[in-house]
# Entry
Amino acid sequence: MRPLKPQIFEEDEIRSLFELFPSKKWEFLNYLLFIGAKSSSLILSYSANPGSQNVAHKLALSLNKFGFNVFLPTSPAPISALSLALGERNFSLGIYLSRTLDGKWAILPLAPHGGLINNEDLPAIPPNFSSSAGVIGEIDLTTKYIRKIAGLLDPEPEKGVRLSVLDSPFSSIEQHFFNHKDFSVFSERDPLGPIAKVDSSGQSLSISLEKASFLSSKEMVEIIGNYLIKVRHSGGTALSPEGNSDITLEFGDSVDSVEIEGDAWDMSFKAGFVNLFMGWWDPGIIVHQGHGPFGDAFVTLGYILEALSNERAMSTILGKD
# Structure
């Protein structure tokens, strides 16, 4: 088994999917049309890269021509928000649009369970599509996503380490944090505290504790893992890049360690088939138990702040326990 990974497009190609389709071999579109024969509605979400909302609308118009009803959020959302919505709202199709480093656009289709698609599920022959045009609608991905995060984090976190700055491109999510007391770990500020930055897809976190020194992915995993085991009494399977299982092996008998060959998408694919404890990949991408198969920077940040404020967890990390 292997996952169907993001497929890369120029903006002009996205605008002209319907016209170009007969001459192109686009696996993602073959899959959408295959599933679309049973369900013509999908969710199209997009990253916080500049221009993403505009390009997402162009993609929605292209998909309308194939007969799809496309539901778009009104603002960018983390990929985990889309993943959770697919499972909870019984949509058969999902698409996440993001921008590549060289300015092109990546289209990632998601299966009904909210995870990556297995290449073995792709149709051998391109299917037919509906002759009727679809429509565009709106969907709220933020509210249930926020509630899911609230269910994972401690509702009464200990007083301790708080951020001085949270650099996030998801303003609607930050607004929820400041409007609800359950998210004090995110909303409270300490002018001497760490600086955290969330990437445009909501997967990757970077956090500096002092003097511009950023935590490595391994250090984040160590902090969170020891906290979840020592304080939350969690366990399961830990996923790590090939040759990097040493840190998760230190978690003890409650955690099994599996190394993943490939990239972060391969790790997310595997996360959908195991009793997940956590999985990680550089840079700062951490997948969490009970929260879908993709990295989530906000959950990662919440756990780190809780752990750094918990004396029992930190004593283990510092070798004092």
Q: What stands out?
A: Residues 52-65 form the longest helix (14 residues). The chain is about 35% helix and 20% strand.
